[in-house]
Design a protein that fits this description.
The chain has one domain. The chain is mostly helical and 232 residues long. The protein is built from eight helices and three strands; from the N terminus they run ααβββαααααα.
């Protein structure tokens, strides 16, 4: 959600917000098209996403990590609290290149925790605070402007900064998980070279959604800072 203030609103919308909205739309469409394409291409070994994840985890000494089905599409994730890797039905039992790629990516997150990868630990620490505060910053900022309470505005900036920090930390976490996934797929010969190319395209398309989310957060943060300056 964006806040607008003063005579420069339309220019800000045209120059910043509109391109970001269009970019978000394009990236989401690209992600869906790429995932759909490689979901229709079966890997030559006939290995499912769950089997690929199990192969990777066992190979990294993570036999204690469970693999479960989860409802929905692209709801795949790793839960560090229970050491459970959850794959959507299509990626759990599917034998496609995309299924193996997504499963390997989530296994990459499990490996990050096992290796004490610092960014993933930081993200885990920030997430609870963001869940609590993400809906607070706009009403806090508006009330601060309305009642001319500078300290309330500064608190809103601090609250939103947590969301921005989360998006920033997420970038290395997601790119690193994909690199780990591709590396293990190659080293364990789970897919051949042409299939790995497809995995890279799927994971790259997914990574771009996180890049856009970061840019949106950055635009919001800059806008709030500009509003605060205009109010001085």
């Amino acid at each position: 959600m964006y806040l607008y203030y003063g005579s420069q609103d339309m220019m800000y919308f045209i120059v910043v917000i509109l391109p970001l909205l269009l970019l978000t739309f394009v990236v989401q469409i690209k992600m869906k098209i790429t995932y759909s394409k490689y979901s229709g291409i079966m890997n030559r070994r006939g290995i499912s996403g769950a089997e690929a994840a199990r192969n990777i985890l066992d190979g990294m000494g993570l036999r204690h990590v469970r693999i479960e089905r989860v409802a929905g599409e692209l709801t795949d994730h790793f839960d560090p609290r229970t050491n459970t890797l959850r794959l959507s039905e299509k990626n759990y039992s599917g034998h496609s290149v995309a299924a193996v790629g997504v499963a390997a990516h989530e296994a990459g997150h499990a490996i990050q925790y096992a290796k004490n990868y610092v960014p993933v630990k930081l993200r885990a620490a920030v997430i609870p605070a963001v869940r609590f505060s993400s809906w607070l910053y706009i009403p806090m900022f508006v009330l601060g402007l309305f009642y001319n309470m500078s300290w309330f505005i500064y608190m809103a900036l601090i609250v939103f900064s947590l969301t921005f920090i989360l998006q920033l930390i997420t970038l290395p976490v997601e790119f690193n998980a994909s690199r780990r996934a591709i590396s293990v797929i190659e080293s364990r010969s789970i897919l051949d070279s042409s299939e790995i190319s497809g995995v890279k395209k799927v994971l790259w398309a997914a990574a771009m959604t996180y890049v856009v989310a970061f840019l949106v957060s950055l635009a919001q943060l800059i806008r709030i800072l500009l509003l605060r300056r205009n109010d001085d």
